[in-house]
Amino acid sequence: MSAHKTHRHTLWELKVALSFDFPFYGHNLRQVIVATGGFMYMGDITHRMLTATQYIAPLMANFDPGYSKNSTVRFSDNGNLFVVQWDNVRLHEQADEGPYTFQAVLHRNGTIVFNYKEIPMSVEKIDVKGHPVKVGLSEAFMLPGEQFTIYEYHRVEINFTKIVSGSAFELTPLPTCLQHISCDLCLTSNLTTGCGWCNTLQRCSDGIDRHKQEWIQYNCSVEAKSTCEDYNPVQPEGSRAPSTTPLQVQLRLHPPQPKGIPENTAIIAGVVAALALLVALTLLAVYYINTHPTVAPPFYLMQRRTNNYWPSMKFRNQGCHSNYAEVELGGHEKEGFIEAEQ
Asked: Given 1.10.150, 2.60.40, 3.30.1490, 3.30.1680, which CATH number is that of 177-231?
């Protein structure tokens, strides 16, 4: 657990590995950063402005779990769902308004659900001076330089007035170019538009995703103007190599069977020998495991998580130094571009 502190509030965050690939804007992610500020950071690069882009935010605000012993952030992963619950968390400098309890649920198919159990005060009234208030999703790509540039190319925002106790929202992902794994699907699928195939990277894209830097580096914008036939030219008639040696010739290459042993008998004997070897190896493995009880057998499920298992993360004020800053406080933003230091 790492603690990041600004001059106005404190934010704690935790990297969590997922047990399944979660598709976020077409990118399969296996790790998220859970923050006490009511959101998850979905980016590959950890930088000073986590709240700026690449987030899933059921209710991003200046929550401080250190106000109460009952405040927790819990998560659960059962292989098909990853659930994060901000439980009884209170707002910094607005703690008297009451505790908030809400969830973000990530489904294996990419669907995202926000559930709100307790919303004691209208989201519109939450103080934004020390921390941004956001509800929704954001995705961006980053380009390196003296100060890397973040470009937010898509954002989903949920109306604050709709967020009340007992409400829920389901966000369903749309098809993306990245899901196509072949040139033909990339250029002919009716599910997507504007896709181009980069043969060098073997990737389908419209050029606007978090792999933008690679798309530029390998000149994919030029390759994407080609057709699949340019990458797989059709061979002219008569140019194909002749078929391999006929079956009759291949049979003559096999050594003759010893006299007195029919061919079928030799095959049966080989199968019996293989089965005997398999049984012997199995018995040997069982004996080894029984005589070595501390050794875990292959493919053993090391940790079992179910919907009833909610590991709890307790947070307390620890006042340590950090370089964390909000985009509203420490970055330059213009027309979707943000310049920041790592």
From this structure: 3.30.1680
